[in-house]
Automatic annotation (TrEMBL):
Domain of life: Eukaryota
Chain ranges passing through the membrane: 20-43
Keywords: Membrane, Transmembrane, Transmembrane helix
Protein name, UniProt field: Chaperonin 60 subunit beta 4
């Protein structure tokens, strides 16, 4: 019983760590994408005016 409980705690901890790293990865991706989109928007708006 303790082996199963320890294993489930490890699995839950592993999923939590994976979720946090995934959130950090998505945050970095969103940050880079927003910078690229804003630079492209500024370049396009300069051409239009």
């Amino acid at each position: 019983m303790t082996m199963v409980m320890g294993l489930s705690v490890l699995v839950i901890l592993d999923l939590v760590v994976a979720g946090f790293s995934l959130m950090i990865c998505f945050a970095i991706f969103a940050f880079v994408a927003s910078i690229l989109c804003s630079t492209a928007f500024f370049l396009n708006s300069k051409d239009l005016s």
